C-alpha cells in the first residue's frame, strides 16, 4: 500500500484562525493609530482656534482723563471696559497693581497678572503698563471676567503725586517720559492670557477736557 499524506480539516481551520487573529491584531493597531492621530489633529485645530479667536472685546468708548502733568495739561490716565465674547470661557484679569487712595500711585498687588496692556504713541512704547481693575455692575468677587460681568481697566500713564497732580517719569519702561497732549494719537494693545490680542487706537481732539469720551 502506498502512504498518502495531506492536511485535515482541523489543521486547515487552525491555520485559518491564526491568519485571522494576526490580521485582526494588525487591523486593530492601524485603526488605533489612525484614531489617535485624528484626535491629536482635532486637539491641534481646537487649540489653534482658541488662540486666534477673540475671547474678550471692548465695550463702549475710551475715556481719557487729563490734568496737570508737571504743570502742563495732558492725559494722565486712560480707561476702557471689557466684556466676554459670546460662548467664551472665563478670562483671568488679575491685575499686577491696585489703585491707591487719593494722592497715591498704583501699588504692586504682589502677584503677576497674566493680562498685558501695552501703550504706544509716536514717541514712546511701554510694553507693560501699570493698569488697575474695577468691576461695573455684576461681580462675584473674583478676578475672572465672566459672561454677565463688565471690567473697567485704568491705564496709568504718569505717576501721581501727593497733591493729586501727575509728573513726568524718569523710568521710561513704566511710565511716560513725555506728555500726551491735544491732537495726540495713541494705541493700546490688550493681550489676554487666552485668545488673540486686540488694539485700541484713538486720536485726541484739539482741546483737552478733564474727561474725554473717545469713540
Task: Detail the topology: elements first, then pairings.
Layout: H1 9-52, E1 56-69, E2 72-84, E3 91-92, E4 97-98, E5 107-108, E6 116-121, E7 125-126, E8 130-136, E9 144-145, E10 150-156, E11 185-191, E12 198-203, E13 211-214
Antiparallel strand pairs: 1-2, 1-13, 2-10, 3-9, 4-5, 6-7, 6-11, 8-10, 11-12
- The helical percent reads 10-25%
Number of helices: 1
Residue share in β-strands:
25-35%
Mean pLDDT: 82
Low-confidence stretches: 45-52
Shape verdict: rod-shaped
Spatially, the strands of the biggest sheet line up as 8-10-2-1-13
Work out the radius of gyration. Answer: 31 Å
Counting DSSP E segments of at least 2 residues, the number of strands comes to 13
The run of helices and strands is HEEEEEEEEEEEEE
State the domain count: 2
Q: Strand pairing plus helix content: what structural class? A: alpha+beta
Main pleated sheet: 5 strands, antiparallel
Q: Give the terminus-to-terminus CA distance.
A: 110 Å
Structure description:
By secondary structure, the protein is α+β, with helices and mostly antiparallel strands. The protein contains 1 helix and 13 strands. The protein folds into 2 domains: 46 residues; 159 residues, no CATH class. The chain has a 5-stranded antiparallel β-sheet with strand order 8-10-2-1-13, with no helix packed on it. Strands 7-6-11-12 form a 4-stranded antiparallel β-sheet, with no helix packed on it. It has a two-stranded antiparallel ribbon with strand order 3-9. A hairpin with a 3-residue loop joins strand 6 and strand 7. The protein is rod-shaped, with a radius of gyration of 31 Å. The N and C termini lie far apart (110 Å). About 4% of the residues have low confidence.
Amino acid at each position: 500500500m502506498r502512504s498518502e499524506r495531506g492536511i485535515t480539516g482541523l489543521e486547515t481551520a487552525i491555520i485559518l484562525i491564526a491568519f485571522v487573529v494576526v490580521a485582526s491584531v494588525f487591523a486593530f493597531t492601524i485603526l488605533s493609530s489612525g484614531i489617535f492621530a485624528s484626535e491629536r489633529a482635532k486637539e491641534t485645530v481646537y487649540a489653534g482656534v482658541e488662540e486666534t479667536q477673540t475671547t474678550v472685546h471692548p465695550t463702549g468708548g475710551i475715556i481719557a482723563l487729563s490734568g496737570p502733568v508737571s504743570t502742563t495739561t495732558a492725559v494722565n490716565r486712560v480707561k476702557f471696559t471689557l466684556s466676554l465674547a459670546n460662548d467664551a470661557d472665563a478670562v483671568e484679569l488679575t491685575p499686577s497693581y491696585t489703585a491707591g487712595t487719593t494722592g497715591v500711585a498704583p501699588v504692586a498687588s504682589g502677584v503677576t497678572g497674566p493680562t498685558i496692556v501695552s501703550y504706544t504713541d509716536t514717541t514712546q512704547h511701554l510694553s507693560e503698563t501699570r493698569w488697575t481693575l474695577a468691576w461695573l455692575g455684576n461681580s462675584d468677587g473674583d478676578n475672572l471676567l465672566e459672561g454677565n460681568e463688565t471690567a473697567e481697566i485704568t491705564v496709568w500713564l504718569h505717576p501721581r503725586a501727593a497733591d493729586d497732580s501727575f509728573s513726568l517719569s524718569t523710568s521710561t519702561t513704566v511710565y511716560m517720559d513725555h506728555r500726551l497732549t491735544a491732537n495726540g494719537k495713541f494705541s493700546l494693545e490688550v493681550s489676554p492670557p487666552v485668545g488673540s490680542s486686540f488694539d485700541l487706537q484713538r486720536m485726541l481732539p484739539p482741546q483737552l477736557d478733564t474727561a474725554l469720551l473717545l469713540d
